[in-house]
Design goal:
This protein has about 325 residues and is α/β, with parallel strands linked by helices. It has three domains: about 1-95, Winged helix-like DNA-binding domain superfamily/Winged helix DNA-binding domain (Arc Repressor Mutant, subunit A, Orthogonal Bundle); about 100-170 and about 280-310, 3-Layer(aba) Sandwich (D-Maltodextrin-Binding Protein, domain 2); about 170-280, Periplasmic binding protein-like II (D-Maltodextrin-Binding Protein, domain 2), CATH 3.40.190. It contains ten helices and 13 strands. The strands form three sheets. Strands 3, 4, 5, 6, 7, 10, 11, 12 and 13 form a nine-stranded mixed beta sheet that branches. It starts with a helix and ends in an 8-residue tail after the last helix.
Length: about 325
């Protein structure tokens, strides 16, 4: 029994290398996949051959050929690793803590306070979870989600639930008309959106959530917006407005007026009284009943507490 334990203690650390070698059939490729030096792979295979009592591979030109002994051992090694992974996941599940990685795609607007607030709340209970964050347009985020490159997406507006995607609105925020300082509407308490139907609009590029929202608002007000300039973030949009290059519709900022750094220009926000101007911010996920536990826990926390956590915090983040 002691001899068996001694042999296993020498062989167990080599199992991941054996399994990777079985997949790649090349020492260099196996080393790269595992992130270890090629010399480490070679030494590990020598130790494994010593335990087995026969060579596990033969050199064939620039590659290697697995021996019958290796071909017999590798499938069982893969089964053993799968069993350990399953046991580890079950043990972590019993602990009530989450581990692993969560990939989140989000629109630029939500990177300053919305997503950090959600991650901070989750990390208090699950500090071992790491987040892989990618930001871009609404379309980009949804494409990442559908391709499997992201587990969750934070977008505005969220798409309607479907067979493959689930979604839920977390909160809704008001939209404002942004005009240059000195504009005829700058001091208005509130305006109808059709009062600027003849002016050029500064908008985000196609594919961004706010672009489709603003276009839909203008249609509701009975006109089609004339696009004067386009940008990729709301800071740029406000800067272009402050230069007198058009008007814009955007989420409420922290202040109702602003002056770009080092500039004598500025912009002001005006309430839109008609049509109702708001945007919904929501979470989107792939419908995967067998998905990772940490992803499900983060999603459930966001759905249960996200609206409360973000109420007031997210407003004014542009």
């Amino acid at each position: 029994m002691e001899d068996d334990h001694a042999e296993l203690s020498r062989l167990l650390p080599v199992l991941p290398i054996l399994v990777e070698l079985g997949a790649s059939r090349h020492v260099t490729a196996a080393a790269q996949a595992l992130g270890i030096p090629q010399s480490t792979v070679s030494r590990a295979l020598s130790r494994a051959a010593g335990v087995v009592g026969t060579p596990l591979l033969l050199r064939r030109g620039r590659g290697v050929e697995l021996t019958p002994a290796a071909l017999a051992l590798i499938p069982k090694a893969a089964e053993a690793l799968d069993a350990v992974r399953t046991g580890l996941a079950l043990a972590r599940q019993e602990s009530g803590k989450s581990f692993g990685r969560i990939a989140v795609a989000f629109q630029h607007t939500f990177g300053e306070a919305v997503l950090p607030q959600l991650i901070r709340a989750f990390a208090k209970e699950h500090p071992a979870v790491t987040f892989d964050l990618q930001q871009g347009s609404r379309q980009f985020c949804l494409e990442l989600l559908e391709s499997g490159a992201a587990d969750l997406a934070l977008v505005a507006p969220p798409p309607a639930p479907s067979r493959t995607l689930g979604s839920e609105v977390l909160y809704s925020e008001p939209l404002k008309l942004v005009v240059p300082e000195g504009h005829r509407l700058a001091g208005s308490g509130g305006i109808r959106l059709d009062s600027v139907r003849d002016e050029g609009f500064v908008m985000l590029e196609p594919g961004y959530g706010m672009r489709s929202i603003v276009e839909a608002l203008c249609r509701s007000a009975g006109f089609r917006a004339r696009v004067a300039f386009q940008g990729q973030d709301l800071h740029t949009i406000r800067g272009l407005v402050s230069a007198g290059l058009g008007v814009a519709v955007a989420p409420a900022a922290r202040a109702s007026r602003g002056v770009p750094h080092g500039s004598t220009l500025g912009w002001r926000e005006v309430d839109i009284t008609w049509p109702e101007a708001r945007r919904d911010i929501g979470l989107v996920w792939r419908n995967r009943p067998d998905g990772p536990v940490q992803v499900a826990r983060f999603r459930n926390m966001v759905l249960a507490e996200g609206g409360h956590l973000l109420d007031g915090t997210a407003r004014g983040v542009t």
